[in-house]
Amino acid sequence: MRVHVQNPANETLFPITPEQWAAAVARAPDMADLEVSYADDDAGFAAALPQADALLTWVKEVHTRIAVPRLALPERLKVIFCTSAGVDRLLPLGEWLPPGVALLNNRGTHAAKAGEFGIMALLMLANHLPVFAHDARAGRWAPRFGSVLAGRTVCVVGLGSLGGAVAAWAKQFGMHVIGVRHSAAPHESCHEVVSQADLETVLPRSEFLVIACPLTPQTQGLFDRRRLALLPQGGKVVNIGRGALWDQEAACNLLDAGHLAGCVTDVAVPEPLPQEHRLWRTPGMFVTPHMSADDPGTYNDRSLDIFFENLRALRQGAPLPNRIRPERGY
Amino acid sequence: MRVHVQNPANETLFPITPEQWAAAVARAPDMADLEVSYADDDAGFAAALPQADALLTWVKEVHTRIAVPRLALPERLKVIFCTSAGVDRLLPLGEWLPPGVALLNNRGTHAAKAGEFGIMALLMLANHLPVFAHDARAGRWAPRFGSVLAGRTVCVVGLGSLGGAVAAWAKQFGMHVIGVRHSAAPHESCHEVVSQADLETVLPRSEFLVIACPLTPQTQGLFDRRRLALLPQGGKVVNIGRGALWDQEAACNLLDAGHLAGCVTDVAVPEPLPQEHRLWRTPGMFVTPHMSADDPGTYNDRSLDIFFENLRALRQGAPLPNRIRPERGY
């Protein structure tokens, strides 16, 4: 079986390296017979693709090299594995992905890192840190006191690896955790789970909201002004999903109006956020530059382990755990 | 037994109220026979003090009403309980406190709140949040990636209720926790404990430093430039103790020089920090206005519970758990 790794050109922080590959194979000896090639340019891609059974690459590479030009894929290609969790840029899949090719994401890679970012953001909001960051700009020492998380309610929307990891920490800090997902199936870290159709019934009793769902045509703009305003007075929001999941202008308006007390967002529209954008200047809004879930120390190791789990399933004729379902979009 | 509660004048956030007293007595029925009086002015203090067996008040009230004027205390007064943990302003005790009066602090009150602030600050430093707060002032979207806390080393100086609570969370996040305290006695949340005399031997392997010890003549200026520079390149510091425990100018210099990667400090010299102070402007320095350990939702309840524990010990002739030892100063 032949795997082609297509790194982006000039990627310095996250390229998949032969050393990382070797270490992953050492953890998964049944993968020792894989043949692997690497490239980061057009010529390397064109030369390797016809021989590849699996392609391991970036969403942006799939987008520009395959989806946009509607590239004809060779018959032998079975798997395209993306080194990220969000594949929203590639939707709808039906327009470019042949039915015989499985598109996989690396969900699971981000859990530990995103979980820590999420609980950090909840603690920051409980401690008024976004307000203090603004006070610091003016050199203003203005104490406000905060309370511990125990007993307070958080609504986590999306119980994939990101939301699930945040929910686990929130529960450990003694919060009351309400999960929202596609189905209302129970989740070990949530005290209650409701389906997305019932989202509006739980928002009014959620002091904290964590947005951690995938961006799909169904979730785009889910947190519009009306739904954000359903949060109670003093509500606080963390967005570690995608900027297009919420109306960021409405969030700023609700902060300015005093209905929301604080927001921490790791995502924005557009990214990078322009220098003069309102998100940088709205008191109570704390912006981080899309780094919440990516841990350079462990990222590729986790991605490769997950890739190998899927190849193992492929060899066994089992369902591929990380396959994107075209009808759901994640 | 008669208790006098002397609240500060115009205290709106943290005054001890008759309702809080009644609730605390309901939790401690053996205290139902206590007589209690309240005042927030000079006349009320003068009238109540001669009849009081115990005085429950603020450090600043003890300072201005008793320590500075060297007020003669009535024979029957046995206990002065302060509604804070740090009594540095009252040192040395020998200058004003009669040997027959026990000075108590409320240590234990702050543990839950300070522990959450401490782990928040460690997560913020691991995620470069102080740098992002500065980038936001300039509208600069400049991703840097951080790693999870697991496996990284934190040195917690001071294992009282603050430092102990931070150490407990740090351990739960998988960090390697080195504790530093007066003695090298083991601590359940620390993988190693060394005595203060060995502090310098552990700093070079501590990526994170948490300053959580009391301010005494022995600890004043403990973290001078030389000791802060013993931290490894990229070191990160949290100060939840007192501003005078470290050389805050040296910390800024080490941030500017790139030796330290970030600091979160809840304390400063002086407080309130003047508008034009360098601490507000140094990239990588995140200042919060001395609110890390005070939770208005639970503060007085916890303080009263601890006060009653000490009165119970007094009645039983047992040592008072919160008594300040004059020779240590905490």
Describe this structure in words.
The structure is a homodimer of 330-residue chains. Chain A has helices at residues 18-27, 42-48, 59-67, 111-126, 129-137, 161-172, 199-202, 225-229, 248-256, 299-315; strands spanning 2-6, 35-39, 54-57, 79-82, 102-104, 153-157, 176-181, 192-195, 208-211, 235-239, 260-265, 285-287. Chain A contains ten helices and twelve strands. Chain A folds into two domains: 2-109 and 295-315, Rossmann fold (3-Layer(aba) Sandwich), CATH 3.40.50; 111-287, NAD(P)-binding Rossmann-like Domain (Rossmann fold), CATH 3.40.50. Chain A is of the alpha/beta class and 330 residues long. In chain A, the strands form two sheets. Chain A has a seven-stranded parallel β-sheet. In chain A, strands 2-1-3-4-5 form a five-stranded parallel β-sheet. In chain A, helix 4 (111-126) packs across helix 6 (161-172). Chain A is elongated, with a radius of gyration of 21 Å. Helix content of chain A is 30%, strand content 16%. The interface between A and B is large, with 55 and 55 residues.
Provide key terms for this protein.
homodimer, 330 residues, Rossmann fold, 2 domains, 10 helices
